[in-house]
Amino acid sequence: QVQLVESGGGLVQAGGSLRLSCVASRSIFSINAMGWYRQAPGKQRELVAAISSGGNTNFADSVKGRFTISTDNAKNTVYLQMNSLKPEDTAVYYCYARIYSGIYEYDYWGQGTQVTVSS
Predict the structure, then answer these.
(1) Which of 9, 40, 44, 70 has the fewest C-beta atoms lying within 10 Å of its C-beta?
(2) What's CA 89's distance to the chain center, in Å?
(3) Cα–Cα distances in angstroms (integers) from residue 52 to residues 28, 89, 97, in the given order
């Protein structure tokens, strides 16, 4: 298992930046993939960005060129740097970790952090 603790959300004006952090309770070397989902009111949760243990990244089309994802292995932390924020980025952002074990995959989630972008 792994526990995830997010931080860094808040209120920012359109065009501003925020950096979200997610600290894992175990070495991220042992985690196959980590990333961020978000859920806006009345909408389904959607993938924002993900990074594999091999360093491959994946981004939602809506955030490409504005968001970056990175890890600090020494701190067991994954970051989401969000630049040029837009009001439509407003959502609760959830960190996740995926661990493969044999034929099974296990997903773990953080508690979520609110990001609000004002126009």
Answers:
(1) 44
(2) 13
(3) 10, 23, 10
Q: In angstroms, what is the C-alpha Rg of the chain?
A: 14
Longest pairwise C-alpha distance within the chain: 47
Query: How many whole angstroms separate alpha carbon 5 and alpha carbon 22?
Result: 5
pLDDT mean over 64-89: 97
The mean predicted confidence, pLDDT, of the chain is: 96
Closest Cα partner for 31 from 112, 95, 113? 95
pLDDT tens, residue by residue, 102-113? 999 999 999 999
Q: Is the CB of residue 5 less than 8 Å from the CB of residue 17? A: no
Specify the pLDDT at position 14.
Answer: 98
